What does this fold into?
Amino acid sequence: MAHREKQPSVRVGALNFDGTQEFRPAAAAVTPIAFTTLAAARTATIVPGPLPAVDHAEMQAKPVSHMWMLYAALGAAAILVYYLLPKAGLAQALLLTSVNASAVVAAIRAALRTSRLNRLVWIALAASMALSTLANGPYYLYPLITGHAVHFPGPVDVLWLLTYPCFVVALLAIGKQRRGGHQGDLLDAAIMTVAGGTLMWLFVIGPSIRAPGESIFEHMVSAAYPTMDLIVFAVLVRLSLSGLSKSGASRLLVASFIALLAADIVYAVGILNGTYAFGGPTDGLWMASYLLIGVAATHPTARVFPRLPTTARIQVNKSRLGSLCLAVLVGPLLLVFDGKDVVIVAAASALSFLLVMARMTELNWSLAALGVELEEQATTDALTGLLNRSAFNHAIAAALKESHERVGMLMIDLDEFKRVNDLAGHSSGDALLVEVAQRMRNIGRSTDIMARLGGDEFAVLVTGQTDPTKLGERLIEALDVRFLVGGRTFSIGASVGFVMARAGMEPELLTQEADIAMYAAKDRGKNRLVAFTPSMYTEIVDDQDFANELEIAVERNEIRLEYQPIVRLEDEAIVGYEALARWTHPRFGAVPPDRFIPAAEASGAILPLGRWVLRTALHDLTRIDVTRETALTMNVNVSAVQLLEPAFAYEVGTALEKAGVSGEHLVLEITEGAFIDEKSIAGDQLRELRALGIRISVDDFGTGYSSLAYLQRLPVEELKIARLFVDGIGKGHAEGSAARAIIRMCDALSLRCIAEGVERAEQIAPLREAGCEFAQGFHFGRPVPIEKVLELRRLSQVGNDAPGLALQLAGAA
It folds into this structure.
């Protein structure tokens, strides 16, 4: 570098050991540049993303290394020792160069150990540190050895200038790991860069160009250093604003660049004041910058820079807004307090103003787009694109308030949608819902308001003179066409209820009545259209009242059991009892079983009710037949809902054990309406129950499916002939033919046969002649409470007259 004896008042450069001045590789910068970079790095919205699967697994598999801590400690000690050594001596020069060289080794090691995606970062940093080491060695050692300064411009300047492109490449490679930036980030970075460039020009580049006694080439090289520094500053600000991961290596690298800028600041102040000397604070900051790169390279997170997800468009927070305001005010403040390079500073201020206006415009567009997006999310079903429940309710209210025409509502529920989810999966179910929405759009008019209320439930609001029933019929027809989803074909159908709005009707009532009509359509066979009538509302409310009351009826002792005897026709002796549930409600009075049992099954209250009936009946059996010498049985009715409970067989076994009753004394009655598939869960339950010795009986045989298949495949041992057929016995041959046929079938299948509903004496002889062994009915006894059964049994035991007991029961009550 050329030896020059001149005052360092107008250009920034390094002082040689003989007191002359020339440019250092790390270009000078002023304090606001470093402040802006630090603020950008600290205030940028940072959203860490998941690590790539392979790298994350690798980091999980290997133990965390603490080499970086040791390296950092040794580096900090080296910086401390640096200031304890004689200033401007060989030891200081060697130590600074050694710290620089150690960062080269650390960066090369990181490049060899990292993933291919991040290798470029460490290769670029290793190259920059290597170039800096090759430049620092001659720059500090050459004057000590020869007594002469390094020539300027010279090979050392080429090495230093090449470090800047390496820094830019490293930053851009890190930027590939961040989320995609937005236009607002770019504008913010441009505003801050213009502010930094203005300061750089005013205090560094401008004085360098105007320095006397230099050639054009020397001016160009002098200006190249701060210009390259400004480029690095711009890239760093852009990267910081658009997001940096919170990994240790990322933070250490940001700290390294901040330390470099801080060194430039201290160096610039020293040059301008003529106080810079080798071995001062500036060199320690440069050493810290080298050290931080080495520490980052040895940190466990150096292998992976986590990829960051895309965040919301609007990222302006208070800290960023303050940094932008400070950057915008740089130009005007310089014009007021400095007055140098007025044209350039004014142009920079105008450019900052234009960038701020562009930023405000972009922000307004982002806010408008975000508002539209949020409104769509708030009012639209994400899956189908139809209105959601909230928006549909607002549409109903608006239609009822503003429309002077007819307003009708259709409530649509898919009939067999659950099968699609069960057989093809929920993704196929979602695809089917999207197709349903599309078919609805194709059929509806532009004035019809369509919505998905949730699950497989849709609704349509119809205004105008059009009859909504026609639209409902077209919807049923369209949804009855098969759907192809998940490689499978499904037929689902739809139940549609509709209602016409009345004057002064509230939106909630309109929705409720349409919903009631839809459920009525399901109850009447599905895949049909049903209009709302007031009687539907009364029926559904009553069912709901029963369901609610049933949940607490047992606790209030409103449910009781009555027992009806089952007799052997040969001698009319009692062989068992059937437990029959009775409910006396304080408000409704006596509620018949055919009223509350269906309600209990629909609401799920049948499960606790059934458990109570079973436990109570078994306990009462132990009171009726204390000695068990007569082998009485207890028949208990079981709902199909109970059989579908996986733990039902276990619960029955537990109840038998607690009551101390063996399975042979229990008969469980099921109805044909339940029609149980032998491969279903219920079929498995019946086999488990039979294994406990429990007898399975089919109640009201002949009124349901009457399938011989389940009689042969399921463990059924008993049939109870429905009263409808037994009533014909004794009236003539033709009237009793159905009952006699069932009795003959039982004999062929070795099934026990019980005739239900025997109420007349003339029915007994024909039943005996037909081969029926057992009977039940009012002729033998009406259902009575347990206390009455116990009393009559005591009287019978005193007289030792079993047939007489049946006759007494018949006359009881």
User: Anything to note?
Assistant: The two ends are 127 Å apart (CA to CA). Residues 342-379 form the longest helix (38 residues). The CA atoms of residues 562 and 785 lie 4 Å apart.
